[in-house]
Amino acid sequence: MKKVLKLNARSVVEVKDGGECQCVKLNFQVYKDGKPNFGSKVIIYRREETGYVFDYDEWEYFDCLLPREDEIVFDGELEIDNTFCEYTDYDVEVGKTYVYWVGRERFGEYLTGPAPVTVRDRRVWWHFDEILEKTYALQKDFPNDVTLEQVGNTVYGKPLVAAYVGNRKNLIACVGAVHAGESGPEILLPLVRELLTEHHELLERCGMAILPVVNADMREKMVDGAPWYIRTNAVGVDLNRNFDADWELIDYSYNLSSADYRSPTYRGPYPNSEPEVRALIKLMESAAPRALFSFHFLCSITADGLIVSKSAKDDAPYLADADEVKQIYSDSFRDAIGAQRRENYKAGIVCSAGSLPTYMYRKHGIPAFDLEISGDLDMLMDCKRDQTTPEMVDIARRGHKDGLIKMLERYSV
Predict the structure, then answer these.
(1) Which of 214, 154, 218 shows the shortest CA–CA distance to 181?
(2) What is the pLDDT of residue 236?
(3) Which secondary structure element, helix H or strand E, spans residue 276, and what is its range?
(4) Nearest to residue 279, comparing CAs of 331, 338, 325, 239?
(5) Which residues is 320 bridged to in the sheet?
(6) Measured at the alpha carbon of residue 92, what is the angle toward residues 86 and 95, in degrees to the nearest 5?
(7) What distance in Å separates the CA atoms of residue 329 and residue 403, rounded to the nearest whole number?
(8) Residue ranges of the domains in the chain?
(9) Please, which residues have CB within 8 angstroms of residue 308's CB and are 6 or more apart in sequence?
(10) Which of 354, 353, 366 has the alpha carbon at shortest distance from 325?
(11) Which residues contact residue 127 at a Cβ distance below 8 angstroms, ignoring those fewer than 6 apart?
């Protein structure tokens, strides 16, 4: 029996011809009659899959795809390293989705695949190593103003490193990528660097606690090319349903049950079960922020759609304060990006049981928001199709920078 096993496709950055380029690496293992076969003759098929729609189609979209005869991109010998072969495809374009198959014979019985991969722009989607590097660079460049603290680890053991910036006794908190396919580090880290450079005195009056990425395991999977939107952590738990705050209440957002382990909104087996959630709780208990802003929406982009916990629906003073914060933040955000202001712009009462905003409301009583998109901001809406550009990230960063400046001013007293 001739067979290829363990086919994996991954988008990577390599140095080629003196410069960096993005490519796709295939790794697979070759077997014959149940034993390693050191013959390395393989045929590789590739298709550009234009029918796949991000955030609509899921992983099973690719299950039944088969290649055509005219889609062969390699037919020959590959070097073997301990029974594994590797093939690098340099003929790919950023933003496109490709599907690969590998066989030992032309359309033989033992064709392996499909292995799908989306080549995402690394200026828009940062690898975890880059996030850590830029976080540590803040402390190196501003040693008197930035303190780093590892508040925990992910399921896969990645360190979750928070940055305390400026005044540690009076601060606001910002967290990113609680959901893997959403926003955070690409906006927050450049924004904090600009604030340290341009508004140092303001940060001395009101500081910031920043955790740029929470769901680091699955975000890295998307950076490496998983085409579909990923919401949960590595063991299938929605971190924004796992906090010990009204956790026992089943949430049915998106027509899904948070009690169903098969659901992308699954709340987990018990409250605070996930290491990422415990890390966030540790940060919040240590920082004791006066307000919280958690960055969401899609593909490294979010805007001025501030929403609060449904558990606060009958708390009129809390909602009045949240409405005021949202109006101030939104006005500043929109002025910065040249968008029309929204009058009487109230905070949406949307965040579910077990969410971070619900936890901060129940445990600390502070204004706590998930940040989402606003439907009228057409300049940012391509992110819904996984077509975020560096220019869109820059627009969002400018808006959030001015919004957070207003928050720092508000909480300086």
Answers:
(1) 218
(2) 98
(3) helix 275-287
(4) 239
(5) none
(6) 125
(7) 4
(8) 2-118, 128-410
(9) 318, 319, 322, 347, 348, 349, 350, 351, 357, 361, 367, 368, 369
(10) 366
(11) 220, 223
Beta strands 97-103; 41-48: pairing state? antiparallel
Tell me if 247 sits within 8 A of 267, measured CB to CB.
yes
pTM as predicted: 0.94
DSSP state of 270: S
Other beta carbons within 10 Å of 99? 23
158: its two tokens: 């990645």
Architecture of domain 128-410: 3-Layer(aba) Sandwich (3.40)
Tell me, what's the pLDDT at 1?
A: 46
CB 408, CB 205: distance < 8 Å: yes
Q: Token match 């590739």: residue?
A: 46
- Report the C-alpha gap between 182 and 295 in whole angstroms: 8
- Burial per residue of 100-131, b for 16 or more beta-carbon CB atoms within 10 angstroms, e otherwise: bbbbbeeeeeebbbbbbbbbbbbebbbebebb
* Phi and psi, residue 36, nearest 5°: -55, 130
For helices 185-198 and 390-410, the axis angle rounded to 10 degrees is: 50
Which of 242, 241, 245, 243 is CA-nearest to residue 254?
241
Q: The tokens 């916990």 sit on which residue?
A: 309
**What are the DSSP calls for 41-73, one per residue?**
EEEEEEEE--S--TTTS-GGGGTT----GGGEE
- Reading the block at residue 383, the tokens are 């992110």
How far, CA to CA in Å, does 28 sit from each of 5, 208, 302, 340?
A: 6, 45, 37, 52
Q: Is the peptide bond before 114 cis (omega within 30 degrees of 0)?
A: yes
CATH of domain 2-118: 2.60.40.10
Residue 191: what pLDDT? 97
- The backbone region for 363, taken as left when phi is positive above 0, alpha when psi lies in -120 to 50, beta otherwise, is alpha
What's the average pLDDT block by block, 10 residues per block, for the chain (413 residues)?
80 86 92 59 93 91 90 91 89 96 76 94 96 98 98 98 97 98 98 97 98 98 97 98 97 95 97 98 97 98 97 97 97 98 95 98 97 94 96 98 98 91
Phi, psi for residue 262 in degrees, rounded to 5: -85, -10
Q: Are 45 and 116 spatial neighbours (Cβ–Cβ below 8 Å)?
A: no
Q: Nearest to residue 388, comparing CAs of 207, 186, 210?
A: 186
Residue 72 identity (one-letter amino acid): I
CB-count exposure of residue 285 (10 Å: 0-12, 13-18, 19+)? exposed
